[in-house]
Amino acid sequence: MRFLIAATLCLGLASCQTAKSEPPFTLTDLTGAYTRFYDATEGMPEAERIAAFKRDVAPNYPGFYDAERYVAQGSTAERYDRQIARSFADFPSMRAKYAAVSANFVAMLEPARASFVRAFPDLGSIGQITLLHSLGEMDGGTREIDGHVRLIFGADVIARVHDFSDEQPFFHHELFHVYHGRYFGDCDQVWCGLWQEGLAVYVAASLNPGATDSQLLLTTPEPLRPFVEAHPGAICATIARLDTTDASVFFMGNNHLDGMPARIGYAVGYLAAREAGRTRTLRDLAHMNQAARPVLEAALRALATCPAG
Fold it and tell me: I need a surface site. Which of 1, 217, 261, 262 has the fewest CB within 10 A?
């Protein structure tokens, strides 16, 4: 089901566009497709149920629900099947919150979008947004689907890891990725991921003074910022790997550097972006292209004294 979020949903918000202009975003909500499938196949043998998911649910979003995408990211078709099966086991405990995410998604997103526009008035239309069951992959983020960068939110992960006390920092983080992608050319090196993710955290923190590390998603699998601040070796290890391509040890929950927690790159990148922001505006940082590489390294070196070599 597709919903055009137009001016009628934005009455009273100064940032809303007129009915004649392009809508701020177009939302495709696929959460109900998973719920209906779950109910219709409950009790089915697992292997048959996985096959049924691929037949009945996956075609709702070709390119996302594809084993090939997982394999291209370094996973396997077998692991993809296990993710599908695990979603069946996990769904009953999250079902109520999952439904609440779907019911309240626009009400959570639109105020965050409106406040983001006040800081970045040239955001314009976000384009297509998809809300779905991500099989445990993501609470939100951009993915390249059929050659296009799409903004996708996983209602299952939002339901599992968010407390709904204040979701604005989370939405600001993801909206910034859309905005930043218009100026910053992607690359496979670690430094690019540090700049993209660290800057998104920094923007979310800047637009939400007083936001907690939990709201900034810096507490999984453990408090990340305090770890980095207490272990400058984490920054030195990052500097040594800036131009490598194994970003998974910095950003993935299932990988890490020896002696350091998973996802450490989010905290390292945030502290570096905050350091770079001492003399630059948010828009200055956001509009940097590949010239951000020396800015990032200089910020990291300002944070820690590392051995030569």
Answer: 1
Please write the tens of the pLDDT for every residue from 232-284.
999 999 999 999 998 889 998 778 888 999 999 999 999 999 999 999 999 99
Place of tokens 């993209």: 196
List the alpha helices (DSSP H) in 248-306: 248-251, 264-276, 282-286, 292-303
Asked if the bond preceding 221 is cis, omega within 30° of 0, the reply is yes
| Burial class (CB within 10 angstroms; exposed 0-12, middle 13-18, buried 19+) of 53 | buried
Task: State the sign of the Cα–Cα–Cα–Cα dihedral 14, 15, 21, 27.
Answer: negative
Report how far residue 120's alpha carbon sits from residue 179's, in angstroms, rounded to the nearest whole number: 8
Q: 184 near 292, Cβ under 8 Å? A: yes
Q: What is the 3-state secondary structure (H, E, C) of 200-213?
A: HHHHHHHHCCCCCC
Distance from the Cα of residue 110 to its chain's centroid: 17
Q: Give the single-character DSSP code of 17.
A: P
Q: Is the whole-model pTM more than 0.90?
A: no
Are 116 and 77 a contacting pair, CB within 8 Å?
A: no
**What is the spatial order of strands in the sheet that 2-5 belongs to?**
2-5, 25-29, 127-132, 148-154, 140-145
Q: How many CA atoms lie within 13 A of 302 on its CB side?
A: 14
Mean pLDDT of the chain: 90
Q: Which residues share a beta bridge with 150?
A: 143
Contact 61, 30 (CB under 8 A): yes
Single-letter residue type at 279: T
Which stretch of DSSP H or E encloses residue 141?
Answer: strand 140-145
